[in-house]
Amino acid sequence: MFREEPYEEMNALLSRDRVAVALGVRMLEHSTGRCLLEMTVDDRMLNAYGACHGAVIYALADIAFAVACNSSGVKSVGLSVNIHYRRPVGLGEKLVAEAWEESSGTTTALCRIKVTNGEGKLVATADGLAYRMSRGKYKSE
């Protein structure tokens, strides 16, 4: 899919993200401006109809957005995210989020995010706009 590069800062960023930790999000691959994350739907993540809550799918997409935008070494924060849900996900299913920077400027970056299930079927797509907070290297704190 894409080449993995060793960015300890992104592994540290993900490990400090309390929502990512609570949801059990795992990094599969990452490179500059890209990442691939996964998680498994458990009973805490279900809505009233027994399907994965849209907020959980959104959270996975948003976490992937954060990793992809910060992996270039410039501290970035989200300005907006627009998500489109395409199919429901049930208990025990795996979700995979792939995010990549489509364009990156000095003050903003546009990310595309695709969430699929364990069979590779499309669950959601999202677009995220990030603000580049600084031109300096991202630092793990």
- Please report the total strand number as a whole number: 6
Largest sheet descriptor: 6 strands, antiparallel
Domain count, please report it.
Answer: 1
Distance between the termini: 30 Å
User: Structural class, judged by helices and strands?
Assistant: alpha+beta
CATH names the topology as Thiol Ester Dehydrase, Chain A
Mean pLDDT: 90
The radius of gyration is: 14 Å
Series of secondary-structure elements, N-terminal to C-terminal: HHEEHEEEE
CATH architectural type: Roll
Give me the side-by-side strand order of the main sheet. 1-2-4-5-6-3
The outline comes out as globular
* Share in helix: 10-25%
What low-confidence regions span 5 or more consecutive residues with pLDDT below 50? 1-6
